[in-house]
């Protein structure tokens, strides 16, 4: 490959730098609000009145009886999101594999119906979901929330995994089957290890679904101790006046784990995101 | 075990509230005090975000899952009493008469009045030493105090709640003999008064901005309520006084008063005992001193001057009406106020338009229709469908299903149960007229109303067809921007000689990793006319500042910029993945052959990317079509609902335009219909089955 010309190198770096800075601006603003002592929506970028009070007061919330709340809500968020990721991936792996490997009557329609379910506007669904979970005695429980989130994440997860399974050569399975391995053994021993990047990405997506959602969580959970962090954050920007400083501080705390996951999984993200497409 | 750990303790009295800051601290202290004295039946106070409190209460209490007590404004009392959500309570004597009157429905009273909230006039004493008794004095003081970068008077003009005092001051008001009469002459006079006050106020002020201006000493007087006390900058020497009398009429500019009420949702001696105590003088004194509340109880120590001013304001304040007709006027009046602020309507036009909009929002429901013919038709359709399905099924070889089903069943069953069922039930409401309690069958009347544009002229931003046009434009513009930016960045990032590739890539993915409601709210702030970063940059570059949410094109652009920022990383990552698996020999060969980079991209790279990008584009367009967060949080449909897309319209019909669930459900069904049509079209365009 030929060495690139100097102007091209400079132009590429300049473009990347400019766009990256533009991308970072809103995030810098959030950081600025979090560190500002006023609860206003300030623009000044000087850091003279720097304070960590917002972080302190967000971390120090308690219930009426004085129980520490933040740790509990963080724990809820982590448990719900991790369980959603696990359940979502398990459900989507087998479905994605079947859709990738076998042709059967109704396969196309099934793939389509998974996508159609992505089209349902959520506006009309919260009340029926509430009644359904009530009937199943899953209201006010983190398990109910996990079930709802995991199902919401299944269509995209299935599509993505199916796209990745498509790229794994069938010869590998045929070889394993010749050696006498069952379908299930081949799937768990041969296919799943190869699909690790796609599984990581899919899990990350399911995790994010649960980590960021607040409308259903606020409706389905009756108790402050059962809330997840986004519900709490949303509470800071209420009807009468907003506590922007605390909102921003909470936002940063909520964002850090997902940002960290994105950094760690960067390579898998690029390899494993197929969105159902065919690569190359 | 962990997953099921959140159930309430038996025997406990639960209380839902949305109080924050000092009010919450005072409540928590009082609850602890009560619990120390009554260890057998303790009270548990649970904070619920204000936006979810009403929805949650309406869903939970009829199912027996609700709290024993809840704190809410008195404006829902009539509706909830009628639905049996709350129980009658006799609060007894010892409360401000206006607070008890507000809780009376028929012959009963519902709840214990806790605190009264109304607007009053805050003034910066350094700028306005004396409380102005009349509007003429107020205008004079405001003009004297104004200066470069400082405003004489600020209030949230576009809020029907905050502007109501000026209508009342001219003898106007929303209701006349129980019916909404926004266009009566007194209200036109009130809007004229507002127009005369507008030059004193900052352009386009939001509630957060009013707060900020006062705290920075840049607004001499503001209209605000007791909730502002926790946020006011202690360095400002401020005082509160009742709103002035309007000089032209001699009548007081009367704000609404909302009575924060402790409502009884479940019968119980403990709950009643606690309720009476929390509202009573002892606890009220504590709520006044610690929680800084304007308490409704009479027998309390004299409050400090600030709270005393709020209490004095109650003598002229108007109790917020509780009727359903009144609740429907907020949105039409607010829309007209925004037009007035923008200069897009005269006071008389604004009043007339508000009344017209109100008439549309409050139009009577479609007549009940007989379900029998529809049931017969449905039955025939089901039988025919089944027959066709059986006929088709006979011709198909079902054997592969034997081994496929176990693999597919878990995912499919979960989706049918938790996605399909709720949607079908929710969509079924489209054939009914309901306010959440009684259903009456109306057939396809809602669909006809929507599709035939019976309520609005086709060109109105609220009509289905013009909203559909905006939605399609929104989707196409977004997907085009996401894909071109994503692909361009991916092409830049793939070059092995780019320095710090990993760092760039990581930073460019960030918008995707941060929750979208956080960044959408941040972007809204950045587009603010006066204090936003975007206008600061424009001004620094020598351009005129833009009022972003004042016209369709700029508001649409603001939404588009936000959503592009949120959406390009996905396309970038998909493209990067696809590029990694494309051999570069072809491109290099083309380069050797002398093809320009545009030709190389069009004829070599793009065709190779197509199979990977196509499903991402289709998925992305479905997501964008239903992108509620950005529209709702950034432009909020401004101006006049013209940037609303179908999903946000459906939301407004369900929750802010008077709970027309049936109408909203019909919208949702139509949204699905449009997307299904799009799916068929996409298959055609793609030349293969993608959907």
Your description of this structure?
The complex is a heterodimer of chains A (280) and B (691). Chain A is mainly α and 280 residues long. Chain A contains 13 helices and no strands. Chain B is of the alpha/beta class. Chain B folds into four domains: 2-116 and 258-322, D-Maltodextrin-Binding Protein, domain 2; 120-254 and 328-358, Periplasmic binding protein-like II (D-Maltodextrin-Binding Protein, domain 2); 368-414; 464-686, MetI-like fold (Orthogonal Bundle). In chain B, strands 1, 2, 3, 6, 13 and 14 form a six-stranded mixed β-sheet that branches. In chain B, strands 8-11-7-12 form a four-stranded mixed β-sheet. Residues 1-10 of chain B have low confidence and may be disordered. Classes of the chains: A mainly alpha (280), B alpha/beta (691). Chains A and B meet through helix 1, helix 3, helix 4, helix 5 and helix 6 of A and helix 1, strand 2, helix 2, helix 8 and helix 16 of B.
């Amino acid at each position: 490959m030929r060495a690139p010309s100097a102007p091209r190198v400079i132009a590429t770096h300049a473009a990347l730098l400019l766009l990256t800075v533009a991308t970072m601006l809103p995030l810098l603003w959030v950081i600025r609000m979090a560190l500002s002592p006023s609860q206003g929506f300030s623009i000044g970028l000087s850091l003279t009145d720097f304070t960590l009070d917002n972080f302190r007061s967000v971390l120090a919330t308690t219930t009426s009886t004085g129980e520490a709340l933040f740790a509990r809500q963080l724990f809820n968020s982590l448990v719900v999101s991790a369980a959603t990721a696990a359940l979502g991936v398990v459900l989507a792996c087998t479905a994605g594999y079947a859709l990738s490997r076998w042709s059967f009557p109704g396969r196309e329609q099934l793939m389509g119906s998974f996508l159609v379910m992505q089209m349902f506007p959520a506006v009309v669904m919260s009340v029926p979901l509430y009644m359904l979970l009530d009937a199943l005695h899953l209201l006010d429980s983190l398990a109910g929330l996990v079930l709802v989130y995991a199902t919401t994440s299944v269509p995209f997860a299935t599509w993505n995994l199916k796209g990745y399974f498509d790229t794994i050569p069938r010869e590998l399975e045929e070889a394993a089957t010749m050696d006498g391995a069952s379908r299930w053994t081949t799937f768990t021993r041969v296919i799943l290890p190869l699909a690790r990047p796609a599984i990581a990405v899919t899990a990350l997506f399911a995790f994010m679904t649960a980590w960021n959602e607040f409308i259903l969580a606020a409706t389905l959970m009756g108790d402050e101790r059962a809330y997840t962090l986004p519900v709490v954050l949303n509470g800071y920007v209420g009807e009468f006046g907003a506590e922007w400083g605390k909102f921003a501080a909470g936002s940063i705390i909520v964002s850090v784990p997902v940002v960290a996951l994105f950094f760690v999984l960067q390579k898998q993200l690029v390899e494993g995101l197929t969105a159902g497409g065919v690569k190359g | 075990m962990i997953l099921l750990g959140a159930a309430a303790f038996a025997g406990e009295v639960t209380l839902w509230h949305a109080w924050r800051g000092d009010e919450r601290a005072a409540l928590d202290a009082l609850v602890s005090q009560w619990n120390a004295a009554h260890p057998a039946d303790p009270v548990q106070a649970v904070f619920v975000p204000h936006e979810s409190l009403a929805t949650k209460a309406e869903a939970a209490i009829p199912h027996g899952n609700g709290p024993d007590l809840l704190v809410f404004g008195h404006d829902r009392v009539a509706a909830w009493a009628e639905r049996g959500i709350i129980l009658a309570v006799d609060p007894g004597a010892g409360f401000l008469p206006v607070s008890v009157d507000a809780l009376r429905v028929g012959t009963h009273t519902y709840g214990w009045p806790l605190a009264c909230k109304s607007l009053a006039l805050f003034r910066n004493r350094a700028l306005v030493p004396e409380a102005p008794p009349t509007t003429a004095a107020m205008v004079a003081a405001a003009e004297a105090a104004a200066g470069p970068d400082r405003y004489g008077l600020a209030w949230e003009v576009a809020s029907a709640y905050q502007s109501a005092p000026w209508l009342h001051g001219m003898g106007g008001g929303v209701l006349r003999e129980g019916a909404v009469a926004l266009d009566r002459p007194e209200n036109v006079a009130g809007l004229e008064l507002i127009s005369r006050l507008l030059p004193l106020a900052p352009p386009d002020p939001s509630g957060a901005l009013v707060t900020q201006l006062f705290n920075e000493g840049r607004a001499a007087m503001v209209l605000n309520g007791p909730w502002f006390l926790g946020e006011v900058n202690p360095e400002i020497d401020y005082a509160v006084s009742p709103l002035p009398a309007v000089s032209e009429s001699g009548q007081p500019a009367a704000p609404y008063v909302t009575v924060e009420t402790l409502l009884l949702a479940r019968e119980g001696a403990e709950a009643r005992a606690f309720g009476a105590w929390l509202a009573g003088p002892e606890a009220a004194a504590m709520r006044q001193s610690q929680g800084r509340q304007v308490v409704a109880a009479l027998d309390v120590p004299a409050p400090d001057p600030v709270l005393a001013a709020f209490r004095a304001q109650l003598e002229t304040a108007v109790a917020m009406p509780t009727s359903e007709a009144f609740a429907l006027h907020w949105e039409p009046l607010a829309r007209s106020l925004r037009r007035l602020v923008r200069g897009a309507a005269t006071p008389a036009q604004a009043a007339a338009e508000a009344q017209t909009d109100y008439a549309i929002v409050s139009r009577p429901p479609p007549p009940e229709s007989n379900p029998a013919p529809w049931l017969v038709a449905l039955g025939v359709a089901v039988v025919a469908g089944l027959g066709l399905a059986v006929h088709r099924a006979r011709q198909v070889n079902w054997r592969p299903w034997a081994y496929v089903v176990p693999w597919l069943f878990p995912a499919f069953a979960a989706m049918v149960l938790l996605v399909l069922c709720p949607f079908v039930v929710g969509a079924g409401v489209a054939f009914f007229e309901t306010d959440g309690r009684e259903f009456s069958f109306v057939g396809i009347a809602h669909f006809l109303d929507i599709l035939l544009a019976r309520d609005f002229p086709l060109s109105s931003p609220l009509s289905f067809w013009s909203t559909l046009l905006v939605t399609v434009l929104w989707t196409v513009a977004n997907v085009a921007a996401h894909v071109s930016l994503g692909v361009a960045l991916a092409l830049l990032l793939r070059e092995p000689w780019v320095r710090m590739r990993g760092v760039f890539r990581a930073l460019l993915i960030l918008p995707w990793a941060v929750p979208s409601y956080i960044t959408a709210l941040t972007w809204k702030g950045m587009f603010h006319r006066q204090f936003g970063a975007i206008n600061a940059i424009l001004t620094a570059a020598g351009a005129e500042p833009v009022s972003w949410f004042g016209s369709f094109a700029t508001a649409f652009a603001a939404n588009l910029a936000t959503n592009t920022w949120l959406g390009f990383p996905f396309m970038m990552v998909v493209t990067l993945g696809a590029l990694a698996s494309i051999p570069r020999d072809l491109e290099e060969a083309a380069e050797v052959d002398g093809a320009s980079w545009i030709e190389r991209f069009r004829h070599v790279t793009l065709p190779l990317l197509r199979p990977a990008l196509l499903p991402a584009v289709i998925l992305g367009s479905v997501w964008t079509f239903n992108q509620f967060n950005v529209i709702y949080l950034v432009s909020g449909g401004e101006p006049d609902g013209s940037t609303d897309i179908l999903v946000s319209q459906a939301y407004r019909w369900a929750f802010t335009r008077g709970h027309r669930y049936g109408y909203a459900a019909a919208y949702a069904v139509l949204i699905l219909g449009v997307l299904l049509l799009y799916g068929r079209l996409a298959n055609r365009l793609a030349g293969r089955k993608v959907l």
